[in-house]
Structures are given as C-alpha cells and as structure tokens.
Design brief:
two-stranded antiparallel ribbon; 17 helices; 3 domains; two-stranded antiparallel sheet; TOG domain-containing protein; microtubule binding; repeat; 363 residues; ARM-type_fold; ARM-like; 57% helix
C-alpha cells in the first residue's frame, strides 16, 4: 500500500503548495532550486554584489556630524538625508538622489532682516511646530530675526513662541537644540524683564544643557545664561535662580551659583542692601562647601563682592549695644558671626580675610 504524506511549502508570495505524494517531493524541491538559480543569473551583476552592502548602509545608525569651530569659521552640521552611493558610484538603479543639508549657526550680528515680515509672521508658529527639523531650524532663526529687527511683531505671540522654543530645546537633534539656545539668547536681549513670567521652563532647560557633555551645546547654553544675567534684572532673576542652588545635580547647582555670582554685582551697593545682604551672605556661604569647584569659586567671588558692598554701607549695631552717643556699626566679622552659624561664619571669614581673588569670568 502506497503511503501518502502531506507537506506544506510556503513560497515567497505566501502561496501554499500541497504535495500529496511523497515521490513528488524531491522533484518539487529540485524544480524550485533550478528556478531560484535561473532568476539569480538574470539579475545584473551590480545588483547582486550591492544587495548586501546597501542593506548594511540602511542598517547603520544615524550619526550627526559636527565640525568644531576651527580657524574662526562658523560651526556647521552636514547631514545626509539618504544613503551614500555604493563604491563611490552614482545611485542609478534606485533612482534616489543624495541630499546634503547644511545647518549653519549664524551669530546674531550677522543675521539679516526678513524679506517679507508679514508672511514670515503668518507661518512662524507652524514652522516652530514642524516635525521637519530643517524647517524648524529655519523658523528658529526667523524668531531670532524678529527679536532683532521686529520685536514688536512677536509681542502678541511671545508666550506661544517661548512654549514652542522650550520644546525645541528638548529636541534630541543637537542642531535643533543649539539653534534653540541661540534663539533664547536673542529673546533675552530683545525682551529683557518682560519674559520673566515665562522664564522658568527656559531656565531649567538652559541649566540642563549647560551641564551636559556635548561641548558645543554646553558652550552655547553657557553664553545664553550669561546673556540672561546681563539683560534680565537681578531683582527679578535671583528668586528664579535660588531653587536651583539646592538641585540634586551638582552641575546644575554650579551653573546656578555662577549665574547668582554674575547677577548680584549688577544690584550695586544700595541694591544689595535693599535686597538683603544677610540673605545673600547665607546663599554664598551655603555654596562654599559644595561638591564642584565651580560652585565654590562662584561663592568666594560673591562673598568678596558682598564684603565690599557691606564696608561701603555697614549695618548699624542694635541700640542696646551702643555705649555712646555715636552710633556703632558692626564690622564685617561681627556681621557674619551674628547672621551665620559658627562654622559657616568661620568659613566665610577665611575667604574674605585672604587676598582678594579676581572675579569669576564667564560661566
């Protein structure tokens, strides 16, 4: 009795071929092998040799190249949006073209005015919300142009612009992130104190970016923070910075401490007194023992500034301490001892009694 087997063979087109007779199985396999070999021989040689290599190219992860600022030139990101040609030849069979996009970081003083202000304003928010990163970078640069040449046109939509700007700062693509940082700096210059109510999300992102390992992004964020301390009033900025002095991330604490050190001198002697020299002294003393040297150096610079301001306008001693008709004043040492814990006062006095160091330069 002849024994029958049922064997299911799936073809490339997902067609099921049922072979019911065992004696036919070997003949089917041989026919399929011959067909496959014949089809392969019909392919052009270039397609047979490039098949594996083209798959490898498509499987490679995207790496965004960056050129450092060499010879004073602007840094650029050059990004290939399609796979490169194989073996140096033009891409012929697929019909695809190699597209290279250059993103140039233009300094503020080299940005030209908008050609059509009204039309650019109409499409600005759509551009800032675009998922196309090239269009997004163009829109960010247009925000910079508006801030420099037509800031009054942004006034009504500034909150929406800042909200989308914060989103761009979180973008993982470094070209978008750096352009957004440069946009933040131009907004600080243009709008100053008027952006204080919208500053919190911008500030936290800039502190984060200035604390990361990507150097060219970090440097741009540091410059933006310097502009922030220059163009925003210290009376308004200092309360925004204080919470970050206690952040769990030591790098963020350091950047915040440096911002405080840069902002306080802009208060002036009377401004420091009005803001509360005792409050500022406590802030500085808390940073003297911080983990990173940048925090400690910023704290030392701030204490020297506070000592100078105090000596110009010392605090009067309480009336019960006065033993004559002439009002008595606390010395800097007495002031520190009366406002700080003993160990903190000693640390502050060690700094301020030593030779005065140069102020912190940069962030």
């Amino acid at each position: 009795m002849r024994q029958l087997f049922v064997v299911r063979i799936w073809s490339v087109d997902s067609v099921v071929v049922d072979v019911y007779n065992f004696t036919l199985l070997s003949r089917c396999c041989a026919m399929m092998s011959e067909t496959a070999l014949r089809d392969l021989n019909l392919l052009p040689k270039s397609e047979r040799t490039n098949e594996t290599s083209s798959k490898d190219i498509l499987a490679k992860p995207y790496v965004e190249p960056t050129d450092e600022n060499v010879g004073g030139k602007q840094r650029k990101n050059v990004v290939s949006l399609t796979e490169p040609p194989v073996n140096g030849n033009e891409v012929g069979h697929s019909g695809a073209e190699v597209v290279v996009v250059e993103v140039e970081y233009i300094e503020s003083d080299k940005l030209t005015d908008l050609e059509d202000v009204d039309e650019s304003l109409k499409v600005l928010l759509d551009g800032l919300g675009s998922k196309d990163w090239v269009l997004l970078c163009d829109a960010l640069n247009n925000v910079r142009r508006f801030s420099i040449y037509h800031k009054e046109a942004l006034q009504d939509i500034l909150d929406n612009v800042i909200s989308l700007l914060v989103k761009a700062l979180k973008n993982p693509r470094s070209a978008v992130c750096k352009t957004a940082i440069m946009t933040s700096a131009d907004i600080f210059k243009a709008f100053g104190d008027s952006i204080i109510d919208s500053l919190d999300p911008l500030l936290v992102q800039l502190l984060l970016k200035s604390s990361q390992d990507k150097r060219f992004v970090c440097e741009a964020a540091e410059k933006a923070l310097i502009d922030l301390t220059i163009w925003v009033s210290p009376v308004l900025l200092l309360p925004k910075l204080q919470p970050y002095l206690k952040n769990r991330n030591p790098r963020i604490r350091a950047k915040a401490s440096m911002c405080v050190s840069r902002s306080v001198p802009r208060l002036g002697t009377e401004g420091i007194k009005d803001y509360g020299i005792d409050k500022l002294t406590k802030i500085a003393s808390s940073q003297l023992s911080d983990q990173l040297p940048e925090s400690r150096e910023a704290a030392r610079s701030l204490l020297l500034e506070l000592q100078t301001a105090y000596e110009k306008s010392p605090v009067l001693a309480p009336e019960e301490d006065a033993s004559s008709d002439q009002p008595l004043v606390y010395t800097w040492e007495q002031f520190c001892e009366s406002n700080l814990p003993k160990l903190s006062a000693q640390a502050v006095l060690r700094v301020t009694s030593a030779t005065r160091e140069a102020p912190v330069s940069g962030l």
